[in-house]
Amino acid sequence: MKEKTFILLKPDAVKRKLIGKIIKRFEDRGFEIVEMKMLTLSREMAEEFYKIHKGKEFYERLIEFMTSGRIVVMVVEGENAISAVRKMIGKTNPAEAEPGTIRGDFALSTPDNIIHASDSKESVEREIKMFFGD
Ligand code: CMP
Description:
Elements: E1 2-9, H1 11-15, H2 19-29, E2 32-40, H3 43-49, H4 59-66, E3 70-79, H5 81-89, H6 102-106, E4 115-117, H7 121-132
Antiparallel strand pairs: 1-3, 1-4, 2-3
The chain binds adenosine-3',5'-cyclic-monophosphate (CMP).
Residues 53, 58, 61-62, 92, 110-111, 113, 116 line the site of adenosine-3',5'-cyclic-monophosphate.
């Protein structure tokens, strides 16, 4: 089933000049990029985006990191995009992510784990709306 998912390249990916390499993985896999832009998150947007983590031990560090530089947001489309992209990015903690996954190949720590991708249909809708509107 063809579907869309939302991907965010975090400030560490932009600073480390990994945007091209990461996008290439999705294009090589057969996904189509249907929306894309670069921006810097305001504190308000970062807090809205990660509101389910409010109160957690890592929340402040996460918000500070996410507002520390430019990010790239995109919508990609393809077969089973939500779960296929989640598999390609690897586990949240990059130290545990399999080699061959994006986090497993490019990161070792959190919150600077390179990339975020929506984990469900509901988050795809919410996250696309936040950055690209209806
Ligand atoms: P992401 O998939 O964008 O979802 C929530 C983010 O919080 C996660 O990636 C990490 O960047 C960050 N995160 C999750 N767990 C921790 C943790 N234990 N310590 C620091 N940051 C974390």
